[in-house]
């Protein structure tokens, strides 16, 4: 599947955080949404002191890839 819409525009951790929270709205159940929202918050808080631009870029790329995978998995189960 193609990457999530708007993912190529993400440049800062705050943009990533907001993008991932918006992606949670696409999940089917409230329990799933709450689970992933909590995981996103935890990940954001644990990496909030990161200041290496290369490491931040890697974290952003990985988070977008993971979000794509999760949403693809949910979509596949729906069919």
From TrEMBL:
Annotated ranges, domain Complex 1 LYR protein: 12-68
Pfam families in the cross-refs: Complex1_LYR
Top-level lineage group: Eukaryota
InterPro entries listed in its UniProt record: Complex1_LYR_dom, Complex1_LYR_LYRM9, Complex_I_LYR
Protein family membership: Belongs to the complex I LYR family. LYRM9 subfamily.
Name assigned to this protein: LYR motif-containing protein 9
């Amino acid at each position: 599947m193609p990457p999530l819409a708007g993912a190529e525009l993400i440049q800062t951790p705050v943009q990533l955080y907001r993008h991932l929270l918006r992606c949670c709205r696409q999940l089917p159940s409230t329990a799933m949404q709450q689970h992933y929202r909590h995981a996103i918050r935890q990940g954001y808080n644990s990496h909030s002191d990161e200041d290496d631009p290369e490491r931040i870029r890697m974290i952003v790329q990985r988070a977008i890839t993971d979000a794509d995978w999760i949403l693809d998995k949910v979509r596949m189960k729906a069919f």
